[in-house]
Amino acid sequence: MDIDIKTPQDLDKMRVAGRLAAEVLEMIGDYVQPGISTGELDRICHHHIIEKQKAIPAPLNYQGFPKSICTSVNHVICHGIPSDGKILKSGDIINIDITVIKDGFHGDTSKMFCVGDVPEHARRLIRITQECLYKAIKLVKPGITLGDIGNVIQQHGEANHYSIVREYCGHGIGRAFHEKPQVLHYGDPNTGMPVVEGMTFTIEPMLNAGSRHTRLSKKDGWTVTTKDRRLSAQWEHTLAVTRDGCEVLTLRSDESL
Ligand code: MF3
Ligand code: CO
Ligand code: CO
After folding, report:
1. Cβ-count burial of 67 within 10 angstroms (0-12 exposed, 13-18 middle, 19+ buried)?
2. pLDDT given for residue 81 in this prediction
3. Predicted TM-score (pTM) above 0.90
4. What is the tens place of the pLDDT at every residue in 105-163?
5. Are 20 and 53 in contact (CB under 8 A)?
6. Which of 87, 100, 130, 91 shows the shortest CA–CA distance to 112?
7. How far apart are CA 109 and CA 132, in angstroms?
8. How many angstroms separate the Cα of 109 from the Cα of each of 17, 33, 37, 120, 250?
9. Is the shortest distance between the CB of 168 and ligand 1 below 6 Å?
10. 108 alpha carbon to ligand 3 midpoint, in Å?
């Protein structure tokens, strides 16, 4: 199948799924404190999604992923597996990535949290990465290209002396977790697929403090880390392209945009 353009009825369901995913991130914030394990964060989110939202945590059993959320701490770029042995400590930074399925549709979003006192250099990486996401979102409307999105992220990240992860990217989303197209976080203006009304996709830039190179854990087959073990940050939203812009389906109450 090619790009699945959503109908107004599909979009109503995407809005519900997106709101639920955002609501998990709003809920979990208070728990992200020194001393808690990422395994406990997973259990709290799993319970909330299943019991309160009556929804499905999409990562659980997705291509064999063993938990309901992804928790990526410090030099972990993405796809970190929650575990009871991983205890958060003051100074850590963590990405929590939530994907829920409700009424057959997916909502996918992630945010960075600071644990206790986090040094300014790490806060800056987090802030610039979020700015990359916001700059990309502000660009999205029919007529731009996917290359325009990648370019604004690459320009802003590199202008601030960070590197952009290339091996993982944003994606179309809807009935499936990962649909076409791939949304690269680097590229050239006016290249790639044109953006059209009714497309739904994620933008989820990963920026590294050091080099862009990644390493995939041979032990668990999931955990992606920076090769140089320096810090990485990521933020993600699910968007729907409208007639003259886009709607952020996973907007949280702590955001304006
Ligand atoms: N939520 C991730 C994304 O943004 C995908 C996680 S796949 C999993 O695309 F299996 F690790 F959960
Ligand atoms: Co995603
Ligand atoms: Co995600």
Report:
1. buried
2. 99
3. yes
4. 999 999 999 999 999 999 999 999 999 999 999 999 999 999 999 999 999 999 999 99
5. yes
6. 130
7. 15
8. 11, 21, 21, 25, 6
9. no
10. 5
